[in-house]
Amino acid sequence: MSDEHSSRSQGNKSWLERISQAFSSEPETVEDVLEILRDAEAHNIIDADAMSIIEGAMQVIDMRVDEIMIPRSQMVTVKAAQDPKSYLSAIFESAHSRFPVLGDSQDDVIGILLAKDLLPLAVNEELSWNRVREILRPPTFVPESKRLNQLLKEFKQTRNHMAIVVDEYGGTAGLITIEDVLEQIVGEIEDEHDFDEEAHIKTRGNGSFAVKGATPVEDFNEFFDTQLDDEEFDTIGGVLLREFGHLPRRGESVQLGDLVFTIANADNRVIRLLQVTRSDG
Q1: CA dist list (Å): 132 to 78, 80, 85, 96, 121
Q2: Rounded Cα gap, residues 147 and 139, in angstroms
Q3: Residue 271 is inside which H or E element, if any?
């Protein structure tokens, strides 16, 4: 074994021992653990993707449901009083898979309708409220203050994928899905409705936009009618690196004009994905 290989092995062992010690000796803060893991990442002992997932998992421990839920005003729902034929096309066009069903009011969630359960009724021309009512799944209710790690555990145990979030008065505050929680851990989850292969910007239904960090500044300016610097930087990720002044991590935000940029996915080298929203001010 060469001296260089031996030295590298000893160095790796030293870092691995430090990681092991961090978890066995009860470090005082989560940040203490993360600092050691970031050192390990810098020495290529763990890769950037693994580090991102670890950080996301630790972040979830301290987060509440109301921090990431889809607010009541943005919920896509159907009403029990509606003729199912009237909302059939809207359900399939929305690309969602689960829909809260409302009774007498927005606070009266009587069930969850799965698109896959509705499809056989549509094919067999059995779209009536009585038939739809038979296929509704019971709703799960959680308080705004519930911790995300606790909710994820419940989702896993009950095999539910959606919960209705209620406020302290029992009113509907919003909804949350298992995908919302997982995205806090692993980053933005792409599916067939996300980016096309050549696309850089995707409009989301909640008034926000998903933007790849590699989006050319010229394309970004054209889409958002902005005038960001396209001479010094080629990509929107480069522009934001200057604004942050450091390599940002997931969840960090910065505002340029009336646009708020939130890091959805990044590693220790590059900004990969952004969420862009317009400020209220």
Answers
A1: 11, 9, 11, 17, 8
A2: 19
A3: strand 271-278
Residue 63 lies in a domain: no
Name the domain count of the chain. Answer: 3
In 3D, which of 84, 79, 81 has the Cα closest to residue 131?
Answer: 84
Answer with the one of 150, 184, 218 that is the final residue of a domain: 184
The pLDDT assigned to 26 comes to 59
Q: Which residues contact 7 (CB under 8 A, 6 or more apart)?
A: none
Helix (H) or strand (E) holding 262: strand 259-266
pTM of full prediction above 0.70: no
Task: Say if strands 98-102 and 78-79 run parallel, antiparallel, or are unpaired.
Answer: parallel
Tell me the residue type at 126. E
Query: Mean pLDDT across the chain, nearest whole number?
Result: 81
Q: What is the pLDDT of residues 5-35, one digit of tens each?
A: 444 444 455 555 655 655 555 556 767 777 7
Flag whether 65 is in a domain. Answer: no
Distance CA 128, CA 116 (A): 16
Residue 227's domain spans which residues?
201-278
Whether 251 and 273 have beta carbons less than 8 Å apart is answered as no
The length of the chain, given as a count of residues: 281
Q: What CATH number does residue 109 fall under?
A: 3.10.580.10
Q: How far is residue 63's CA from residue 60's CA, in Å, rounded to a whole number?
A: 5
Instruction: Tell me which DSSP letter residue 125 carries.
Output: T
Q: Are 122 and 91 in contact (CB under 8 A)?
A: no
Residues 209 and 142 in one domain: no
